[in-house]
Amino acid sequence: MNIFKTCIITLMLTVLLAWTTGCKKSADQKLADAELNRTAAEQNVEDAANNATAVNEWQAFKTEQEAKIAANDKIIADYKVKMTNSKGKLLATYDKKVDALETKNKELMTKLNEYKDEGKDAWEKFKSEFSRDTDELGSALKNFTVDNKK
């Protein structure tokens, strides 16, 4: 009978040990899962903050560029008024130049309005190229004024 009691006690200890180990794994697994969930939540918060920053940066950039394009439109309109008061061959020469500048300005507005977010690298490239193009157009308009005054 001692063997029977020993077997029962051994069996009970084995079941108790297995249950305790199973609970421990379960608790460890829950802790690991909670850690993964916390990490994912932190990443989601960081992503949301980055997205909000990107949206704010885009809106500021777009507003700034729209203002530059609108200013260019006003300069172009002023040139057209001045040209209607001009006479002779200069009018045709300036008319073609102003039309080319106006076309470029409209292309910039279209490009700005059609921009689609394709990631940070693409955004940085777009921003750099677009700023360069608007600056070049602004310089061309200023140089046109200098040529017109001569």
Question: Layout of helices and strands, plus pairs?
Answer:
Layout: H1 2-84, H2 89-113, H3 120-149
Helix pairs in contact: 1-2, 1-3, 2-3
Characterize the structure shown.
The protein is an all-alpha fold. It has helices at about 1-85, 90-115, 120-150. The termini are far apart.
Task: Describe, in short, the structure shown.
The chain is an all-alpha fold and 150 residues long. The chain has helices at 2-84, 89-113, 120-149.
Any low-confidence stretches, pLDDT <50, length ≥5?
146-150
Helix run count = 3
Biggest β-sheet strands, sense, barrel: none
- Describe the global form: rod-shaped
Helix/strand-derived category reads mainly alpha
Strand portion, in percent? under 5%
**Terminal Cα separation, in Å?**
122 Å
Mean of pLDDT: 80
Helix content: over 70%
Number of separate structural domains: 1
Number of strands: 0
Radius of gyration: 36 Å
Can you write the helix and strand succession as a string?
HHH
